[in-house]
Design a protein that fits this description.
five-stranded mixed sheet, Nucleotidyltransferase, domain 5, 7 strands, disordered C terminus, globular, 2 domains, about 210 residues, about 35% helix, single chain, alpha/beta
Length: about 210
């Protein structure tokens, strides 16, 4: 990895994303023309944040004629925890008292996801845990008392620094897609929301005049 910038703050992506792209390229000693491919997390996560990030990556790829790759947010969270030697549960807040989640295990020295990411109440996820496991993600950090209270010594909460997706994890996972021929053409990278937006879930035919 040549350079990474990690920013924690309340500003939206649209206010600082391109400035950060310029900064990290400068620190790497590159220009955008030196980049062979672009990548971003594709979900789950904030619907607005995902749209901004993917639109930026698709735009950069189109402008430079380069491929793009989308990385699961849960995969990027779990990857740094592979050295724990135990199953890893990546947990992200999904509101409505639910979490986005996925379980990972070490297979031949590489952390592999079991199935697809899903959304469920935290208690449903914890009911599946029957062995010592590592928990990572903002939901694991915010709800660690509930996790430890339910699982006791079976629960291992990842260090605080690992509960936010890091650029290096996205880059390493995306590089595997580029090398394996699994990238996509710029403009075709789509978000994986895992569940519908609140507006879609709450819509009922006939709820509005004329429908």
């Amino acid at each position: 990895m040549r350079a990474e910038i990690f920013l924690a703050g309340g500003q939206t992506h649209s206010r600082h994303l391109m400035d950060l792209v310029a900064q990290v390229l400068h620190r790497a000693g590159w220009t955008v023309a030196d980049v062979d491919g672009f990548a971003a997390t594709c979900g789950p996560g904030s619907f607005t944040g995902l749209r901004i990030g993917l639109a930026t990556i698709n735009g950069l790829g189109l402008a430079r004629g380069k491929p793009v790759a989308g990385v699961s947010t849960l995969d990027a969270l779990a990857m740094p925890c592979g050295a724990s030697g135990m199953p890893v549960y990546a947990l992200l807040e999904a509101r409505r008292d639910e979490v986005y989640w996925a379980r990972y295990r070490d297979v031949g020295g590489a952390l592999q996801r079991e199935g697809r990411g899903a959304v469920a109440p935290l208690e449903t996820v914890l009911a599946l845990v029957n062995e010592p496991a590592c928990f990572v993600g903002n939901a694991a950090l915010r709800r660690q008392k509930e996790i430890v209270g339910r699982l006791g010594r079976r629960a291992r909460i990842a260090p605080t620094v690992l509960h936010t997706v890091r650029g290096y994890a996205v880059a390493l996972l995306a590089n595997g897609q580029f090398e394996g021929g699994r990238s996509v053409a710029a403009g075709r990278l789509l978000p994986d929301y895992v569940r519908q937006a609140d507006a879609q879930l709450n819509f009922r035919p006939g709820a509005f005049p004329g429908h």
